[in-house]
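Checked the freezer inventory, then went back to the computational side. Two predictions to log before the end of the day. The first one is the construct we discussed on Monday; recording sequence and tokens without edits.
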Amino acid sequence: MKEKFKFLAVLLAAALVLMACPLEDDGDGNGGSNGINWDDESGGTLTVINNTSKDIVLFEGQTPSNSTILGGVKALDTRELNISDDVDNFEIGGYMILRGITKDEYEANKTNLSQAKIEYSAMATYGQGKKFRTEISPNWTGDFGYRVNNTGRIGMELRKDSPDGEKIGYLPRLAANYLLYANSQSQMVVFPLFVYYDRRNGQVTTLQAASVFEGVAIDPRSIVNSSAIQTYYFPSQDQWDRIKDSLTSPVAYITVTNNVANQGARFTIAASRNLVAQNGYGDADGVASGETLTFELKSTASGTPQNLVCTLYQGAIQVPVRVDGESTEPVIKNGYDYTVTLRGSGQEASGYTAVITESATVRDLSNEIDSL
């Protein structure tokens, strides 16, 4: 009997030890062994805002795999990721393709992620000291879908309602039968824009060919009936060689440097419309003191006057953007690079200047495009 009680005591002690030892955590707070990190990372330069009700697992590259997991972003949460160890040229800079699937979808397909439903796609730039912010929208996740093909030789963004509308998704060059999602089957008009990243200077150039890239009416269909899902080509099949020479930029590129000490600024049109930078910053949070951001501004090839204003102190000070020595609105032309330097101090607008300078030539990517 004593031996029996001793045996039970040993079992009880072993159970208590096991209860005291935590399970290996996968970062989601539930224990497990997935190895997905859901916490902010020190030195993070990629900020992902998840506006959906789903936990999203992020991957780098066209096709998700367990070796390319960047981490996870909880539902309705914002997460900073340090991607410096996920690329081999972080100090030089470049771009990556981001893909996102729900945590449930990952769990169901982690042995064969090529079968997983990819509900988020985007292009993100990176580099030492460079930030990028992107949002996962509930509008482009759901149970309705359509297939798209990028027949061009440059990566392509799809945008809703207009060439400068909300970004729906990103397709790399020559992507075929890529399934995009929507939260309803309501028809929408989609505009495709080519996006070219120049590794030599870290510039992102947006291109379109107006004769081909008119808005395309797209009808999402229930993904339950895969045979009903429609397929769309951008541009139409076998048209790349015909349209590549007509590609032009639908925007001007304005690089703003805020040299005002200890005060953020917003880059606006008429002090009423805050502009968003190429890297996703510059709207509500503005251009920080000492920061440089590049904005895309829609204009025309011949140029139009633009009422550009830098605002400070929550709009209490408004500084008109002007060519040095001039008092009229600057004429902004598509395809050109501009620099704006904001300087000054004090509590009056007269104490500040925002000087704009135009580059000598339009951006010319013809050599690069011909080689693609």
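The second is the one RB wanted added to the comparison set:
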Amino acid sequence: MFKNTPLLIVLSNLSTVLPFLSATAMLFFSRSIRNTILLWLFFTAALLTEILVHAHHLANKPNAWIIHLYTPLEYLLIVFILSRWQNREKSRKAMLISIPLYLGLYGFMKIAGIENFESSTINYVSRPISLLLIGGFVLFTLHQLSAREETLLQSDYRFWILLALAIYYCGSIIIVPFMYIQNREILLFLVYTHAILNILQNLLFVIGNICALGLVSPLASGQDKTP
């Protein structure tokens, strides 16, 4: 199945299974399903996307259209999760408002032809915008969490999830715009760098899920708005 695929890429693909498995365990054994179901949905969507992309690659079929479809779903799930972790109502509403605004912009770009729905090319406009917004929201949430945390930050599963998202999405903001470069050596470097970011992200996700399985209850000014 992975014949002729570089080992680093294989490990990157396989690592996506780990957050799904640990989140599934978290879903069944954590105290509240509502606190874990959205994370589980995100990890499930990421895993299914990885499977579809790799299956099309093995069949020598264009697979970039899968990323076109995944991008708005990814944005919706992540931003909604982050909105649940906000301690301020204004921040929560701002993130929730950004969801229909981004989805509307995404649809407009497709309809207006600003960004074609191509099967062989990733969405070169809407995805960088999504990465930029998600990266900003993640860094903001991470800062807010560290500022108000009254216990060990490392014991809060949200810290590990946010750290994973920050590393991957902030790194991807730099990588994705250069994915169209013609130089093979530079392109391979970018692909391998992206694989490393993905592996690191998934390992941090697992740590976060393990913290959640440990039934650590984050302190958020007396309010629990975790998804």
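For RB: The two ends are 36 Å apart (CA to CA). The chain has a mean pLDDT of 86. Let me know if you want it refolded.
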